[in-house]
Amino acid sequence: MTEQFDFTTTEHVVTPTSQEQAFSEATRAEAHAIVARYPESRSALLPMLHLVQSVEGYVSKVGIEFCAEQLALSVAEVSAVATFYTMYKRSPCGQHLVSVCTNTLCAALGGDEIYKKLGEHLGVGHDETAGEPGAEGSITFEHAECLAACDFGPVLQVNYEYYDNQTTESATELVKSLQRGEKPAPTRGAPLTDLRTVERQLAGFFDGDEPAANDGPSSATETLRGARLAQDEGWTAPAMPESAEFPPVPERK
Ligand code: FES
Q1: Torsion of CA 84, 81, 14, 18, to 10 degrees
Q2: Residue 86 in contact with residue 36, Cβ under 8 Å?
Q3: Ligand 1: distance of its center to the CA of 188 in Å?
């Protein structure tokens, strides 16, 4: 089941009832807490969209309007942000989000093949969900641009946690275990939870599990190889000059 809608309209008016149904008093209090972190309320938009997504499983039209109301922004302004960033989803997501890197390096190392095999296994394409959204074992599937882990390619992420050096077999086994309700440990980083929990964390709420407790090893031999080589060889970067002259700024006409 998916629910798609048009973010571009600004004419839809949400009755208070629908926002009340969607967002509890507790969520409203958390929205206020997010706003209080910033000198300008509009700066709270990105974490607030994550909060909305943690509640709804995606960012609905009602969610867009909730953010607009909380931050005194227009629906169009919030829609522009929510539709720009791929982390904000426009239809209900599964318990887990599986993102396969298909950018150049990972693709060449097998990422394209992994994406194809997982799509066949799940029976869905990009940005689609296998299973009932939110139900245990349901998976939203997507291909992603470079996940900033090229030294471990091909990589995929589950709820933004890394699974490095994948093969079609290891990736398929990983997805099957998610479908069975298991939570295999990521290669590095925090333990696997589920997408809504991660969305709460991205909104800044760790529910007693403070950020430090979620830390895990984030570098490996591959990551540090260049730095180690430079150290062994005694290579250093040229010193930064005390002052540098910037090119003149062209005059505005
Ligand atoms: S190309 Fe896949 S992580 Fe960079």
Answers
A1: 80
A2: no
A3: 16
Task: Please tell me the distance between residue 110's alpha carbon and the centre of ligand 1 in angstroms.
Answer: 11
Closest atom, ligand 1, to C-alpha of 147:
3
Tokens 């730095």 -> residue: 227
Report how far residue 251's alpha carbon sits from residue 133's, in angstroms, rounded to the nearest whole number: 54
Name residues contacting ligand 1 (CB within 6 A): 101, 103-106, 146-150, 153, 155
- Atom nearest to 106 CA in ligand 1: 2
Cite the residue boundaries of each domain of the chain with CATH code 3.40.30.10: 96-194
Residues of the chain where predicted confidence (pLDDT) is lower than 70: 1-17, 210-217
Number of other CB atoms surrounding residue 16 within 10 Å: 8
Report pLDDT digits (tens) over 82-132.
Answer: 999 999 999 999 999 999 999 999 999 999 999 999 999 999 999 999 999
Residues of the chain with CATH 1.10.10: 16-82
CATH number of 16-82: 1.10.10
3-state secondary structure (DSSP) of residue 228: helix
93 labelled as ligand-binding?
no
Distance 151 CA to ligand 1 centre (A): 8
Alpha helices in 88-210, H assignment, sequence order: 104-106, 112-122, 168-179, 195-202
Q: Which CATH number fits domain 96-194: 3.40.50.300, 1.10.287.110, 3.40.30.10, 3.40.50.2000?
A: 3.40.30.10
- How far apart are alpha carbons 25 and 143 in whole angstroms? 36
